[in-house]
């Protein structure tokens, strides 16, 4: 039988890369073997357009049970009453919400991409900035914290239909109640995209966005440690506030609109194998073992931030409340691109990142973003964070010295063999 050795050799190479290096990309993690087992299952063969109990295909009895399990566990995990677990990704979840609620040309207000926001929150290169009219809030130049006054001012002036909170590179907690107050004042819907800190939120380590935000979107593969994917949640359903009518002239509940935004709005058949893997990951996230893990993620991030500060690095906002931090490298005379390339040569993976008020392009940048979700899954503790920062500092002060960086890489590979995973 034909065996695609080429692809499996590449997968083996990638596994070796992941195991030998230090993974600090804040949006990455290592799923459990059972999450991968569910993803690599026969469920990939099944078409199941629609929702459990209301499918457009026969033979969906089993996948209905799987999807219902994922929905129930998602609701239990976040204290939600409704979930759609079908979005193929975080970007898909956001596109489904916008398609469900907005008309082309409607105003939206999101966190500026160059201050730590996400492309799907109104960037002009993304559907969200092309189809809708985007406005932005950002951080205060001095403190690096969200400028809530500016956000409220812009919201009152522009009266967007949708306000989005949440970020890709913001290390502090959010005051969701302040967003909700202004959303109520101007009659806007409030969406929290909790893709990054969803694991910390699920287990009560950060403010609860479901208490204040009408709709929640999240990816499932970052701190939540599930398969790559997305999800939409609500705690309370209500009649759509914008008078959106169905073809029959009736109005719909928000959850119906959102379900329609996913399918048939922006997707076809759901990936039931990925939904099964989401169910497994949500089940894991409800355990004490995961709670201990996510507490350690937060402790490790604080330890890492302290270690960077001790070595004279400039962390935006001065520290972290969650799993990540954004470091301004200008005081070290390096660009994000130089740091990323230098660190990759030592098998440390980070990503270059714009810092607020950056004067460099997104391809160069003045900063780097690091996170502790993946290294914590490898079993690391606070002391290991100090050691990692030591390695990073050694590489960044010797980026031009190939021999020295090569030696650090060897030390890292040897050290990482003590943090086994997937054996
Ligand atoms: N929203 C936020 C805040 C993100 O950080 C990301 C990904 O990094 C996304 C959405 C998009 O997720 P995906 O890459 O799964 O489309």
Automatic annotation (TrEMBL):
Cofactor(s) the protein requires to work: pyridoxal 5'-phosphate
InterPro entries for this protein: PyrdxlP-dep_Trfase, PyrdxlP-dep_Trfase_major, PyrdxlP-dep_Trfase_small, Ser_HO-MeTrfase, Ser_HO-MeTrfase-like, Ser_HO-MeTrfase_PLP_BS, SHMT-like_dom
Extent of the signal sequence: none
Binding positions for (6S)-5,6,7,8-tetrahydrofolate per the UniProt entry: 113, 117-119, 361-363
Entry's localization field: Cytoplasm
Residue(s) carrying N6-(pyridoxal phosphate)lysine: 222
Residues annotated as site: Plays an important role in substrate specificity: 221
Domain Serine hydroxymethyltransferase-like: 3-392
Entry keyword annotation includes ATP-binding: no
Annotated PROSITE patterns: SHMT
Catalytic activity: (6R)-5,10-methylene-5,6,7,8-tetrahydrofolate + glycine + H2O = (6S)-5,6,7,8-tetrahydrofolate + L-serine
SUPFAM superfamilies per the UniProt record, alphabetical: PLP-dependent transferases
Keyword set includes Transmembrane helix: no
Alphabetized UniProt keyword annotations: Amino-acid biosynthesis, Cytoplasm, One-carbon metabolism, Pyridoxal phosphate, Transferase
The organism's place on the tree of life at top rank: Bacteria
Function statement: Catalyzes the reversible interconversion of serine and glycine with tetrahydrofolate (THF) serving as the one-carbon carrier. This reaction serves as the major source of one-carbon groups required for the biosynthesis of purines, thymidylate, methionine, and other important biomolecules. Also exhibits THF-independent aldolase activity toward beta-hydroxyamino acids, producing glycine and aldehydes, via a retro-aldol mechanism.
Known partners and oligomeric status: Homodimer.
Protein name per its UniProtKB record: Serine hydroxymethyltransferase
Organism: Mangrovivirga halotolerans
Taxonomy of the source species: Bacteria, Pseudomonadati, Bacteroidota, Cytophagia, Cytophagales
